[in-house]
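Incident log, support desk, overnight shift.

02:14 A customer reports that sequence design results differ from what the structure should imply. Their input is reproduced verbatim below. On-call engineer (initials T.W.) acknowledged and began investigating.
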């Protein structure tokens, strides 16, 4: 499941600039024009991060206090041109996680936000990894035995790397898994050698799934990979 980010931007176009510069293929991004719309969104669904632009109004401070009560785990980042130390401390006491002072380097701070979201995704996947198996339709991956089964019959014994990669794809079925995230989870580092290895393992997995018409691994250009599973339901056990 992708991480979800909500940006509150009252017309300064920061939200659209962030959408353009963040790695939006790896998470869901929503933009709200005010705190009322944002609060409705937070009450309806689980979000991982809230980015608030322009904090001059007391309304935003009260909003932070409200959402912190609704969801103690949501990451809250403030974008503000106010560099007053006492003002910044006040926001941290209200429950925010980060305060970015404008003007700032857009590329650096987008990289910072992307890293935070990647850590949230890794944490979620670590919780899901406590299950022994994941099943998509008739296709079942057993982590412990490293077996891939189809209609309860052994399709292939997998290596550790193949198991980890297929597990990541199945946990995020029909969504894009970036190459960077895959390398981070499997090898815990990023380099050119591992980037080439990902392609090799993806091709191996494609060959194992070749006879299954409703399950395919798709390459998303300049983004990563996606396990397309049609309308199959995913279960973990």
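02:41 Re-run completed on a clean worker. Output:
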């Amino acid at each position: 499941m992708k991480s979800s980010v909500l940006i509150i931007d009252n017309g300064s176009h920061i939200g659209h600039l962030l959408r353009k510069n963040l790695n939006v293929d790896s998470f869901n991004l929503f933009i709200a024009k005010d705190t009322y719309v944002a609060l409705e969104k937070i009450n309806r669904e689980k979000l991982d991060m809230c980015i608030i632009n322009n904090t001059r109004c007391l309304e935003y401070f009260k909003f932070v206090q409200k959402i912190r009560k609704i969801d103690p785990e949501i990451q809250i980042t403030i974008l503000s041109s106010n560099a007053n130390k006492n003002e910044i401390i006040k926001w941290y006491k209200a429950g925010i996680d980060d305060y970015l002072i404008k003007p700032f380097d857009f590329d650096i701070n987008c990289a910072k936000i992307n890293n935070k979201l990647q850590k949230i995704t890794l944490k979620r996947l670590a919780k899901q990894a406590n299950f022994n198996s994941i099943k998509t339709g008739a296709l079942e991956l057993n982590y412990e035995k490293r077996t891939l089964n189809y209609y309860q019959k052994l399709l292939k014994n997998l290596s550790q790397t193949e198991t980890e990669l297929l597990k990541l794809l199945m946990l995020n079925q029909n969504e894009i898994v970036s190459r960077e995230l895959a390398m981070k989870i499997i090898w815990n580092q990023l380099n050119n050698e591992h980037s080439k290895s990902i392609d090799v393992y993806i091709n191996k997995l494609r060959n194992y799934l070749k006879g299954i018409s409703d399950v395919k691994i798709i390459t998303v250009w300049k983004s990563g990979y996606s396990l397309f599973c049609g309308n199959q339901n995913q279960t973990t056990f």
